[in-house]
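Q&A FORM
Asked by: J.P.
Topic: structure of Metallopeptidase family protein

PROVIDED:
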Amino acid sequence: MIQRFGNAPGPAVFEALAHAAFARIPEPFAQHLDGITVHVEEFADEETLQALGIDDAWGLTGLYHGRPMDEESVWSSGEFRPRITLYRQPLLAEWCETDVTLEDLVTHVVVHEVGHHFGLSDDDMHALEDDAD
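REPLIED BY: S.T.
REPLY: Here is the structure written out as tokens.
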């Protein structure tokens, strides 16, 4: 018997899951998220991977682009609005390889990238996650 699965969720589903994750972020943090946009791409481009020192495009599921809040200034006008990019193919692969729901996976990546908006490093966020466990 051949088992068939439906089509993989498209970019619109990822955007909807990301917006749902934003809606669950509590105050006082939520009030500082206005203007952050969400974009979905299949993979990070080569330039982005090189800038981050990542060799394999499958290893990047999301990225925050923008100036962290603790570095904002009235003198930094004219910059692009902050945005979070979700990389669909690596997220789909992680979803298939783990027992984590797609909603929880996207939420985790969105919250992680929002942490960068607040000026937290990857090490800061990993320490917070370890403390929560």
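FOLLOW-UP: The radius of gyration is 16 Å.
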